Amino acid sequence: RAGFILLWRGQLEQSSFTLRVENIIRAIGDSASWFCLLLIAFVCASVLLRYVAGVSSLAFDELQWHIYSASWLLGFSYATTKRSHVRNDILFNKFSKLTQARIDLYSHLLLVLPFVGVILYHSWSFVEWSYLQNEGSIDPDGLPGRWVIKSVLLIGFFLFGVASLVRVIDLKRVIAGLKRGVADVC
């Protein structure tokens, strides 16, 4: 499992709460990864329909970007739980484990969580308006229910915020262990 705190006399694992939350987010991310195969199938079908059968559907094209958006929005919280998100590893790897943990902690507290808060705050009315208007595609052949994909924006950033909060909790435990000199980050 990722995120262990190793003690020199045994192991202190993540708290059961943070582990459960991360497992839920990872299950959602694993499910969202299947959207990529679905997207490949839709793109191939779209190309075949367009160039072999001479049929083109705007709804089909819109569905492709809906699937792509959902996979990305539901997947980036997964990357946070797996510690596979983008960061500047050129400098990061040269720091001590304590400094790395502090950089991660302050990155989440000062950058990620405020950003997530702003996105959630502003996207709520965006999604609400779309739902109340039953917004659909502006094209007559497009998909109805545009609010569905807009709702995924809220869900994705909510999950990202939860993943970041869980990471903050774990980082505080890691930093406390490193300060005592009894823990190493795995």
UniProtKB/TrEMBL annotation:
Presence of keyword Chloroplast: no
Transmembrane found in the keyword field: yes
Sequence intervals crossing the membrane: 34-53, 65-84, 105-127, 147-169
Domain Tripartite ATP-independent periplasmic transporters DctQ component, first and last residues per copy: 39-170
Protein localization: Cell inner membrane
Pfam family, one: DctQ
Keywords assigned by UniProt, alphabetized: Cell inner membrane, Cell membrane, Membrane, Transmembrane, Transmembrane helix, Transport
Protein name: Tripartite ATP-independent periplasmic transporters DctQ component domain-containing protein
Cellular component GO terms, alphabetical: plasma membrane
Membrane-related topology note: Multi-pass membrane protein
